[in-house]
Specification:
The protein is an alpha+beta fold. It is built from four helices and four strands; from the N terminus they run H-H-E-E-E-E-H-H. It has a domain of 76 residues. Helix content is 33%, strand content 11%. The N terminus is likely disordered.
């Protein structure tokens, strides 16, 4: 399946439903999804993790809107996992990548990450956010 080429062409139903929730506008969300849609899959802008809009919104791998500009410009958004977006929200992009690099070095030194590191598409945290009443 190739990405929709026309901005008015509908996305898969689950992604279309996700685009209609919250802010920024559905149009900006559609553009962000189309930017990352390849072969019927949407992967996180930074993480390359497979995104699934049918997960509960409390799940760490639930798609989240990530602003790539400061001040925030709605037209400059991408889609990322909730867990990565939360981390990215409090760090600058440079700090974010520095933390990722540091964690990789520490993980490799402690033999928690084997070299060469292979992508693990099935990765998922054991815990996720509890929805508050």
């Amino acid at each position: 399946m190739q990405p929709p080429t026309n901005d008015n062409e509908p996305l898969p139903a689950a992604w279309e439903a996700w685009c209609k929730r919250g802010r920024p506008s559905a149009g900006h969300r559609r553009r962000a999804v189309r930017q990352l849609l390849k072969n019927g899959e949407v992967r996180g802008y930074y993480s390359d993790l497979l995104l699934d809009p049918t997960l509960p919104d409390t799940h760490p791998l639930y798609p989240s809107v990530e602003h790539t500009s400061y001040p925030k410009q709605p037209a400059e958004i991408v889609v990322e996992t909730r867990i990565v977006n939360d981390m990215k929200s409090i760090l600058s992009e440079k700090e974010f990548w520095h933390v990722i690099e540091h964690l990789f070095v520490v993980g490799t030194a402690q033999k928690k990450i084997m070299e060469p590191c292979q992508r693990r598409d099935a990765w998922s945290p054991a815990r996720h956010y509890a929805k508050k009443g």
